[in-house]
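Format is chain and fold; as here:
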Amino acid sequence: MSFSSDIKQELNKNSNLIDKEQVKKELIGYLISGNIEIEENNIKFSTESDYNINRFSKLLANLNINHNIEIVGKNFIITLKIKDIKDFVDVKDNKIYFKPEINNLKDEYLKAIIRGVFMGSGSINDPNKKYHLEIVFKTEENLNIVINILKKLDINTKKMIIENKKSLYIKEGEEISKFLALIGAAKAVMNFEEIRIRKEMRGKVNRIVNCETANLNKTINASIEQIAAIKKLKENGKFNNLSDNLKEIANLRLENPDMSLVDLGKKLNKPLGKSGVNYRLKKIMEIANE
C-alpha cells in the first residue's frame, strides 16, 4: 500500500464517531473535497480506497443518511441525495460550499473538517522520496477557507491553481508531520518522523563526507604543487641553498605526499603548527618560482 493508503486506513479505524458534531464536520470535509460530483439530485463520491469509502459510509450511517455503494471498475462510488445534506452545506450551481457559521467553530470541529477534506481528496507522497502533501478542491472559495482554517490551526500551506485544478500543498517535512498529528494519524506521524530523521541523518553524513572529500582534494592539490616546486629546486641545483628548516620540511613532504600540514608539523625535529608548516612550504614555492 502507499503511504496515503496507510494513513487513510488508520483514520478509518479511529473510533471518534461518538461526538455527533465531529461526525457532521468530518462529513462536511468530505462533501467539499475534490472527489464529489453532483448529478441531478444526487451527490456521488468516488475513490479507489476501500478504507476511504468505508469511513465515508460510517459517517453517513452515523447520521442516518441513506446512501448506496457500488463498484465501477476499480472505483467505489457512494451515492446520496442532495436533500439529505442541506443542513450541513450549501449547494448551488452544482457545487457544494461551506455554510457561513464555519468561521465560529471550536478547534476540535475544525480538525474534524480537515480530516474529512484529507480523506476526501488528499494525498501524501512516499516521504522516502520527497515531502509533498496535496488536497484538491472543486472551488477556490472552499480552498481558501480550508487554507485559513489550517492557518488558524498553525499549519502553513501554499495554494496552486492550474486551469481547472485547485489545490493546497505542503512540501516541508515538519509541517506535514504537524498536519498528520492534527487529523489524528498518530501512527503515521511516528512513521513519518522516523523516515524524516533517517533522511536528515543521511543528509548530514553526506555533507560531512563531501566536506572531507573537498578538504582532501585541496590537500592533494596543494601537495602536488609543493612537490613540483621541491623537485624543480633539486633539478636546478638550488635545493642545497635552502636553510636547514626548509630542507627538512621539503624532504618530509616528498616522503609523505598525502599527509596533512598538521601531521607534517608533528614529524619535524622541532614540531610546528599548521601555520608554521604552511609558511615554510610557501617559502619554498616562492624560491622555486624566482
